[in-house]
Task: inverse folding
């Protein structure tokens, strides 16, 4: 991954314009920042010079037609593309200002800080308890059995699942309903204290009631976590996210407050996509 020099940030530009006598408020520093991110799968380029800020404690939706690169971009944020042999990533991505592609960075640690929830709920073939306890145990987050039990209970509570499973924690996670399994996967992600949660179409395999529960949960989680969600549902993007980024053919078309993106997008491709003309 190359570090690329870049032009002054918007924050710096704004700072230049501020009257000198007014104390400058520090501009909101993004939790994550992507600059000039390109991804190739072998010879095929899937992302072109993507610049995107991920604001802290907000939900940002990535939208766009199938194959436009949303999941590829999402996977850049916790280096999941490293697991794809033919994938090559260039550009610069930071988490709290730190280059996540730095050679000295521990990728396991990064993936604990930037957790991921996948399209299809994928609990381990273990008990509900073990699904949640596994991460904290391998990351050494609990000093003993009691503390581990507390982490499991708190994570299940935060994922809105505790009351439904508290009496059967030793039953298999795979025995839960699809929606419960997805909330279990969210509890598993939360259990290792992430700062950012990446969600790749987390509701696409769920029915409307389970979807509503997960959406409600996403809204609650925003208080403590930064969330990036890939979704095909315009309604879902509108319901859960404060900001929306529109991708098309590997390019980031535009990004802005969700209500603006859905009522007054500046790019015709966004307009066409949200009105169902393609995708
Ligand atoms: N593992 C891979 N190997 C080769 N090409 C890939 C791989 N993953 C994605 N691609 C290609 O990269 C491009 C972007 O795919 P990506 O899955 O990121 O798009 P997407 O917007 O998330 O699509 P969808 O909405 O259908 O999930 C597509 O052309 C896809 O075929």
Result:
């Amino acid at each position: 991954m190359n570090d690329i020099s870049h032009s002054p940030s918007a924050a710096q530009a704004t700072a230049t314009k501020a009257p000198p006598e007014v104390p400058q408020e520090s501009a909101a520093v993004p939790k994550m920042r992507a600059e000039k991110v390109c991804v190739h799968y072998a010879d095929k380029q899937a992302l072109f010079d993507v610049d995107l800020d991920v604001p802290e404690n907000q939900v940002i939706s990535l939208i766009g037609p199938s194959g436009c690169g949303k999941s590829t971009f999402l996977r850049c944020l916790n280096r999941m593309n490293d697991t794809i042999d033919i994938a090559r990533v260039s550009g610069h991505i930071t988490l709290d200002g730190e280059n996540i592609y730095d050679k000295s960075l521990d990728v396991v640690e990064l993936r604990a800080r930037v957790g991921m929830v996948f399209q299809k709920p994928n609990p381990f073939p273990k008990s509900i308890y073990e699904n949640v306890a596994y991460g904290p145990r391998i990351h050494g987050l609990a000093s003993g059995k009691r503390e581990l039990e507390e982490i499991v209970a708190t994570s299940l509570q935060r994922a809105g699942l505790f009351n439904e499973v508290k009496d059967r924690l030793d039953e298999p996670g795979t025995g839960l309903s699809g929606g419960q399994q997805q909330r279990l996967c969210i509890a598993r992600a939360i259990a290792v204290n992430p700062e950012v949660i990446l969600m790749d179409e987390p509701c696409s395999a769920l029915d409307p009631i389970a979807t509503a529960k997960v959406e409600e949960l996403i809204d609650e989680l925003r208080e403590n976590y930064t969330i990036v969600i890939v979704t095909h549902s315009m309604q879902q993007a509108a319901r859960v996210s404060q900001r929306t980024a529109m991708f098309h053919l590997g390019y980031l078309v535009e990004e802005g407050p969700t209500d603006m993106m859905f009522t007054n997008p500046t790019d015709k491709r966004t307009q066409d996509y949200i009105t169902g003309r393609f995708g």
User: Anything to note?
Assistant: Residues 1-26 have pLDDT under 50 and may be disordered. Residues 41, 46, 64, 66-72, 84, 86 surround adenosine-5'-triphosphate (CB under 6 Å). The CA atoms of residues 114 and 146 lie 26 Å apart.
